[in-house]
């Protein structure tokens, strides 16, 4: 294993982590924004109200995108076990 190979794997893993977490983070962000607007308009200042909708939205997006997530993780694992031929041979 060369330094190049390890750096490539690390950068790909970080990119994949950000890419895979993005849908759930955006769902939580959007839900939190909507709940915050509703709380501001109704003047309800309870902090715990937003937790349940955020969790539900996050799990709904997780279930909806699970096939895509598994495909991306599987592809990355296959590339790691194959040794990233384009990096190793160069």
Shape summary: elongated
Mean pLDDT: 88
N-C termini distance? 13 Å
Helicity, as a percent range: over 70%
Main beta-sheet annotation: none
N-to-C SSE string, H for helix and E for strand? HHHH
Strand content: under 5%
Rg calculated over all Cα atoms: 19 Å
- Identify low-pLDDT runs: none
Q: What is the number of beta strands?
A: 0
Class by alpha and beta content: mainly alpha
Number of helices: 4
Which features does this protein show?
single chain, 90 residues, mainly alpha, 0% strand
Walk me through the structure:
The mean pLDDT is 88. The protein is built from four helices and no strands. It has helices at 3-42, 51-64, 66-82, 85-88. The chain is mostly helical. Helix 1 (3-42) crosses helix 2 (51-64) and helix 1 (3-42) packs antiparallel against helix 3. 83% of the residues lie in helices and 0% in strands. The two termini are 13 Å apart.
Briefly summarize what is shown.
The protein is mainly α and 90 residues long. The protein has helices at 3-42, 51-64, 66-82, 85-88.
Give the SSE map.
Elements: H1 3-42, H2 51-64, H3 66-82, H4 85-88
Helix pairs in contact: 1-2, 1-3
């Amino acid at each position: 294993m060369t330094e190049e190979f390890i750096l490539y794997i690390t950068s790909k893993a970080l990119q994949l982590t950000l890419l895979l977490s993005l849908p759930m983070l955006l769902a939580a962000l959007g839900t939190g924004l909507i709940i915050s607007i509703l709380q501001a308009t109704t003047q309800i200042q309870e902090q715990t109200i937003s937790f349940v909708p955020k969790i539900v939205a996050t799990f709904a997006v997780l279930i909806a995108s699970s096939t895509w997530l598994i495909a991306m993780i599987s592809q990355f694992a296959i590339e790691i076990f194959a040794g990233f031929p384009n990096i190793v041979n160069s």
